[in-house]
Amino acid sequence: MKRFHVHLHVQALDQSIAFCSRLFAAAPVRVERDYAKWMLDDPRLDFAISTRGAASGVDHLGFQVNEASELGELKARAQAADMALLDEGATTCCYARSEKHWVTDPQGIALEHFYTLGKIPVFREADAASDACCAAASTASGAPAASAASAAATVPANEMPRCCAPTAGARAACC
User: CA nearest 108: which of 52, 55, 70, 156?
Assistant: First the structure.
């Protein structure tokens, strides 16, 4: 069974958690310093908010599936529709380990299709190693570590969302 996924960027996480909890009449199932997530049954919705974006608003939409076979079905549909597809395979993002791929609709809206395999303690495992690498590189060059890490995380607006889409090229440029 599929669950619709919405990920929003917010400016004030605590205020947004309080608002959404009242709106959904439910507490989030996961809260981190920069992220919160609700798994609603009516409607079937995986709703996430984070402070990881530059501006408030929709980061991306998608579908979460309960079985790997459903993910394969979504991938086949996207390929049959001649949609641009980015297959990440096994990856980590949004405090979870997942199998996923991304498609982009004709208007450029990113849609994430994913099957969650388990939880992880960080937003993305690669970020910890990359941020340490970028901090070391920026310290050696004399640039502030925070600005180097921010620059490394920047993805052009016409590419996949900054939340979860691969940023290997940006990270490699940093380090």
Answer: 156
Cα 122 vs. chain centroid, distance in angstroms?
12
Topology of domain 2-119, CATH? 2,3-Dihydroxybiphenyl 1,2-Dioxygenase; domain 1 (3.10.180)
Inter-CA distances, 26 with 22, 40, 99, 150, 154, Å: 7, 8, 27, 34, 33
Look at residues 87, 108, 78, 95 and name the one whose alpha carbon lies nearest to residue 32.
Answer: 95
For the chain, the structural domain boundaries read 2-119, 126-174
Instruction: Using DSSP bridges, classify how beta strands 96-104 and 110-119 pair: parallel, antiparallel or unpaired.
Output: antiparallel
Residue pLDDT, tens place only, 127-145:
655 544 333 333 333 333 3
Q: How far apart are CA 159 and CA 10, in angstroms?
A: 20
Cα 105 to Cα 80: distance, rounded to the nearest angstrom: 13
Tokens of 7: 């990920």
Distance separating alpha carbons of residues 127 and 119, to the nearest angstrom:
16
Residue with tokens 């992220």: 35
Rounded distance between C-alpha atoms, residue 77 and residue 83, angstroms: 9
Q: Count of residues for the chain? A: 175
27-62 tens-digit pLDDT: 999 999 999 999 999 889 999 999 987 789 988 898
